[in-house]
Amino acid sequence: MSEDLRSHSSEQSIEETRQKKMQEFKLSYDQNAIRGDYDVTPAARMESFSDGESVTSYSIDSSSLKKKKKNNEINSYSDSDTRRRIERDSKKELKLQRKEEKKIEKLKAKRNRRIFKLVWLSMVIILGVMIAQYILIGVHDLLAINRTDNPHTVTVSIPADPTLDDIANILKDKGVIERPTFFKMYAQFTSNVEGFRQGDFKIDTNKDYEAIINFLQSNVNRTDIVTVQITEGMNLLEIADSLHENGVIKDVQEFLNECNSNNFDEDFTFLKNIKNTDKRYYKLEGYLFPDTYDFYVGEEPASVITKFLNNYENKIIYHKERYFGEKEKTTIAEQAKKAGYSTDEILNIASIIQAEAANKEDMYYISSILHNRLDYGAESGVSQLNCDCTKYYPYRKAEDVPDSIKSNFASRYDTNTFEGLPPGPICNPGIEAIKAALNPIESDYLFFCHDTVENGSTPMYAETLEGHEYNLSLIGQKQEEPDYSDYDWSWE
What we know:
Elements: H1 2-35, E1 40-46, E2 56-60, H2 62-78, H3 80-142, E3 153-158, H4 164-173, H5 180-189, E4 199-204, H6 209-216, E5 225-229, H7 236-245, H8 252-259, E6 292-296, H9 301-318, H10 320-323, H11 332-339, H12 343-356, H13 360-376, H14 403-406, H15 431-438, E7 447-450, E8 459-462, H16 465-474
Antiparallel strand pairs: 1-2, 3-4, 5-6, 7-8
């Protein structure tokens, strides 16, 4: 009995389970069928169960199921309303996404701008402080504010043709300035890059930039001054050698070239009256007025010559009351014109007087003899001036002639050979010689000679050749006419 009951109970349980599963399958099938997920063809077939009952069986075509599913997908997205709605939703979502991204980017950019501004402002402030500090220090140095506590005087030596860098470095080394770069900037801004003078300067360390520049661009403030005395009768070669020995000029030949140029004619109009420059050895011979001069070490030749010519112009051309016209106030040019000579010819005569005369009184007698020979010497049998001082010009004596030309040298200024005055002065005469050339003593003398130096160089004068030969015999000399037939008269 018990076995029957257990068997019946088991069968009942299996039936209930089968019925329940059938219901679930049917429900699931009906729902899928409603959605169109399957293509189902019901096949009414009876399946036997253990109880002999039958159920309807449905046959599912798997290929049809896949096709239905695919078609269902296509149909759902192909629907125009659905597609438009999806596109709208997609665009809206994309727009919202982009808007959110822009908002985030804007926030980031705003934050970055704040950081950049902060960094930039910090850099500007730092740079501004540095520039302000640099400018402040530079301005203090420019105005010498930081150099007024302990001022003192120092000597700075400026080289020839200095650059702005040279000037700034020298001033920095000597403590005159503290900021070379700022000094150079100031000099460039004020157009003072050039114009600095060569030489030694004693300068105070409490000067501002402008005062420093003005101080160093004026020769007046130089301390390397050399005093040179040019004595009466020195010729141009002797003057050049003296200037070189005293350190005034560096190149003798450069100085001589300047003395033979026309570079000074515009500033000194009296030089334009020299007409025979091609026949002269040095154009400015006779115009370098003898005097005591202050020059700077290493001075430019043109500057040196300008000092000479300025002195000549002031003391010879303009100061007629001081030097000329003892009886009447006239200039050298006016007196020369009255005597029938040019100023240059009077200087020429004065240079011979300066070279030949033993003393001041002798100058006026020699002047008389020279004038007499020039006026009527040829008529008296004396056609030449016969002054030995002209024989070796531009040299003083035979020993001064360079060895390279000594064997055949003959000066074109030699008055023993050529008639009349030489082409130009043979030296630079002083005031007394010029006055004697303008105002010769009245005499009929045509000859002169001097005793030996041991006997005081006593002058002797004569009106005739016989009288002159007698004077020569008194001093043990013999008159000889030199032979110039073999001399080459061209200047080498």
